[in-house]
Amino acid sequence: MEQNNSTNPKTLLKAISPQRVIWPILIGFVAVIYLLVKDFEPGTFDLIEFSWITLIGLFIAFLMMALRDFGYMARLRILTENEFSWRKTFRIIMLWEFTSAITPSAIGGTSFAILYLNKEGLNLGKSSAVVMATSFLDELYFIIMLPLILLVLDWQQLFLLNAENTSSLASSLLFLILGAYLLKLAYLIVLSYGLFKNPRGLKWLLLWIFKLPILRRWKQGANQAGTDIIESSKDLKNKNYIFWLKAFFATFCSWTARYWVVNSILLAFWCCKYSSLDHLMIFARQLLMWIMMLISPTPGGSGFSEWVFTKYLGDFIPEAGLSITLALIWRLISYYPYLFIGAYMLPKWIKENF
């Protein structure tokens, strides 16, 4: 039988080649240097005061990332019904995050996730089911949280509609976020229908859509996706509500902890000395930032993420140069570690499993 390209060791080795790891790092640093040169003003770093608050805030930021990874690990154990040990679960999550970090945000690491789970001992059908379930839960978190945020916060402030001299930027961000939200909602509805109601009907629809000339080249991938959904549906349909509540709670903790990293960084450098820190608003804007980052064509959103940080959280930071510096610290804590951990772990994993 011909080996599937996604399971070919050479393909995996290419995915972690030095070029793949270096590109997101270079793109991110070039973006930061450009923004610093463009907006830096003398005396910017005089605003930073290092103190015990700085150390405590940075410690909390790293703690939030640890909680985020623990939430992902707990969810994976729930979805696999404790099939994996904590050690093996940690390895899978780190490999998964590494793949996400070196691919465009819209693609993510799910294309390799099924392979990781399968090679660690799950059959292909259950591996597909677990990956589909994680995608379903992640999208559900975003779909639920945005309306809740709009109910409790000033939506004009949330979307920067009151900011001076940013009318065009605010309008662009608003349409971008709403468009991304509607796409997520549509994806969640289609995925839910396929997983829990009519998987064969969804596969038929996918194949019909991918008969279009512009999409025909991806028809084989659509066929495989449809097959994965059918296999996933068999395993997920009969799970009880306790199973889904536990899995969603782990998802909620993981994503929420990820967003509190920025709150912790702003607290660390005591930006509240210069402007009050509305932690709920900062959290809400990160939710919207993450939705916007999905359109980034760069690996892991490099470059685009730093720019969005400075534009969308800049009114909580007194100087543009300082906001760029904090954006870099944010990425150093929440993104770059996965590049290095994954680049270390994946060659050894390939050698052991192939």
Automatic annotation (TrEMBL):
Going by the UniProt record, its keywords in alphabetical order are: Cell membrane, Membrane, Transmembrane, Transmembrane helix
The family database entries (InterPro entries) matched by this protein are listed as: L-PG_synthase/AglD
Q: Name one Pfam family in it.
A: LPG_synthase_TM
Cellular compartments per GO CC: plasma membrane
Cellular localisation: Cell membrane
Transmembrane stretches, start-end: 21-37, 49-71, 92-117, 140-161, 173-196, 241-261, 282-300, 320-346
What membrane topology does the annotation report for this chain? Multi-pass membrane protein
From the record, what ranges are coiled-coil? none
Query: What PANTHER family does the database record attribute to this sequence?
Result: INTEGRAL MEMBRANE PROTEIN, PHOSPHATIDYLGLYCEROL LYSYLTRANSFERASE
Protein name (Swiss-Prot/TrEMBL) = Flippase-like domain-containing protein
Q: Which organism is it from?
A: Ancylomarina salipaludis
